[in-house]
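User: Second chain of the day. Same drill as before.
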Amino acid sequence: MFANESYSDRQDERYDVLIQPGGLWLRVCGDKKAVKALFGRKRGEPQEYFAALRSAAEENGYRQNPDVNMEIEYHCHAEYSTPPHTYYVYIPVCRV
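Assistant: Same format as last time:
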């Protein structure tokens, strides 16, 4: 899925509106510090973070929420003009 964040549910009928479920989410910013800390290298891809977030959750008494079937890779559109742009990876979690 490719999506854009919106601040209103009033959208052109050509677009579907997905409302992100509320709850507890674990996120990581895909910057150089995170890549170095999690993977020990200079570059990483957003999809690599999902497994790292699941592991971090489990190590801290949480797990990925089985009732929310969604993982999010969010690229901060406002920061595209400032290379490298910022992206975040989110997973829904719940306490074990």
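The chain has two helices and four strands.

User: Great, on to the next one.
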